[in-house]
Amino acid sequence: MSRVQQCADSPLRVVIVGGGTAGLMTAAALTALAGRTCAVTLIEAADIPIIGVGEATLPHLRAFVARLGIDETAFMAATSATFKLGIRFSGFGARDSDYFHPFGDYGPDFGRAEFHHYWLRRHAAGDAAPLGDYGIADMAAAANRFARPEDMQWSGEHDTAGLPYGYAYQFDATRFAPFLRDWTCARGAQRREAQVTRVVRSSENGRVLALEIADGQRVSGDLFIDCSGFRAILRDEDLWEDWSHWLPCDRAVAVPCTAAGATIEPYTRAKAMDAGGWRWRIPLQHRVGNGYVYPSAFVGDDHAQDTLLAALEGAPLADPRVLRFRAGRQRRAWAHNVVAIGLAAGFLEPLESTSIHLVQAAITHLIEHFPDAQGCDADRDGFNRAMDAEHDRIRDFLILHYHATIRDDAPFWTHVRTMAVPDTLAATLELWRETAQVARYGFGLFKPPSWVAVLIGQGMIPRRWDQRADAAPADMLARELAGLRASIADRVAALPNHSATLARVAASSA
Ligand code: FAD
């Protein structure tokens, strides 16, 4: 029985402030999963716009959509979504380097060591085949092909080329929140369109009693969720942990453009920029999303904007929009009876599309630690510990992309290459360099294949590999891997073109 079901006798009055992606995902999840055990009220200010540039997601969002019982086809039609097999990174290791971070595994473990150890052995012997040749998501992205794994007949087979891969969505974030709003309100959530002007707290224990909205009315509740974005209006203490010395990008300029007949690639592109920072390209059904994420200490606003506009492949569909942020998080995201979710709880930066995932993770941990009306310190502490771990792990993975560069062609790249990194990341790098191992953790992003993709993709080749990969004779291993490459290539050739799959999905919704 879930924690949410346990409190069925005393429905909790949950008040969510904010109608952005975080507020609507939280409202939808609580409405769907908590049912009549909690009454959800959503307050959103119509005149304070949402950030709404989050266009690239991670595979976990599929589970979120499915768990709500939302039909994938309807969701994709409403948000003009495309499929995403991963991210292609250019220029992050060496200036001319290129690699793919796929949602999927590389090769089989042959019953012994993880696949990358065999690859390292072949690499040391002079085999030039890149690691990506051994992953279906990687090869399919390169060929611009896509099918859902469950739609392919070979899905679930256990021969060596039947490797698992996943997918996520690239979508129009400005359409996601309204889609969820309609869905949530149709299922009983109350919505107030108003600005919160005052937070009424108990002088005894700091708990929030009610929120005053613009017309002077009060909305009272038991649990308050702060999804008010960077404003974090329910916060009563500033416990900001600043990470900008590790993640110096603090601005982004974003502009969508027409697709102009461009290929709708089933992946996001992230291109490291010479002056510093990186540029994203996210193809949707109806347009292409573009942005330049940059460190203001190294790159001027005008340079960023001019560079982005010059790189557009189609006509701009809006004026460029500059967004400012600071990498870091609020410690104690849950304090008293207020839980901060989304940008109100922190933001790292858009690289690796983790922010909407962190919203989802916070919702999951909140449901696991769902309180009763009195509240319980153990629930709060459990939630805070889990969210701290989620943030720390993502932080280290993002820093890796900058730090594991060999670039010295600009002050920004020299800075990130030579900067001190968190102890946890330093330990991860030491383990990798010496043993080619990546430690696993019980929950949270990212799993070892993701680390391996970035480490090897950015040219960080470890000193040795797992000795178990030496068990097979060299010629047999060479034959196995060549056969595996051919088999993966055959499977990928059988996949339909990404646009054809999108058209089929769209036709099924018509
Ligand atoms: P917001 O979207 O800012 O929403 C805040 C809400 O609070 C609004 O509805 C506003 O009206 C309301 N509000 C504020 N004050 C009040 C008040 N006083 N009273 C009532 N209501 C109030 N994430 C990804 O996963 N993938 C990406 O590719 C990605 N790219 C990004 C690129 C950039 C440049 C940035 C800055 C972020 C990106 N993100 C991405 C993050 C993603 O956009 C956010 O995590 C997501 O949109 C959640 O935002 P939010 O709902 O917390 O805040």
Automatic annotation (TrEMBL):
Pfam families per record: Trp_halogenase
Transmembrane stretches, start-end: 12-34
Listed InterPro entries: FAD/NAD-bd_sf, Flavin-dep_Halogenase_NPB, Flavin_halogenase, Trp_halogen
Record's keyword annotation contains Transmembrane: yes
The UniProt record lists the keyword Transmembrane helix: yes
Top-level lineage group: Bacteria
Alphabetically ordered keywords of this record: Membrane, Transmembrane, Transmembrane helix
Coiled coil region boundaries: none
SUPFAM superfamilies associated with the record: FAD/NAD(P)-binding domain
Name listed for the protein in its UniProt record: Tryptophan halogenase family protein
Organism this protein belongs to: Sphingomonas molluscorum
